[in-house]
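Reminder to self: tokens first, then the designed residues, so the page reads top to bottom the way the pipeline ran.
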């Protein structure tokens, strides 16, 4: 069961944060907003798709939640 089904939220109201681009791609396909947590620098060519947000520090989450 998907987390969006469990919480009863609309997918666009969920922010999924992960450091693995493949996990983010699956969430994005379900309509969930995504944030890539960069643990090391990545080139844009390494992205399978472009996440909604790119984080270099977890403190940035607060800014995204205000949007």
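Designed residues (67 positions):
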């Amino acid at each position: 069961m998907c987390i969006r089904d469990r919480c009863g939220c609309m997918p666009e109201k969920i922010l999924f944060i992960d450091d693995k681009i493949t996990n983010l791609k699956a969430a994005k396909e379900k309509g969930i907003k995504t944030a890539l947590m960069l643990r090391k620098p990545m080139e844009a060519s390494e992205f399978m798709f472009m996440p909604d947000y790119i984080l270099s520090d977890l403190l940035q989450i607060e800014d995204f939640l205000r949007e």
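Strands lie at 15-18, 33-37, 53-55.
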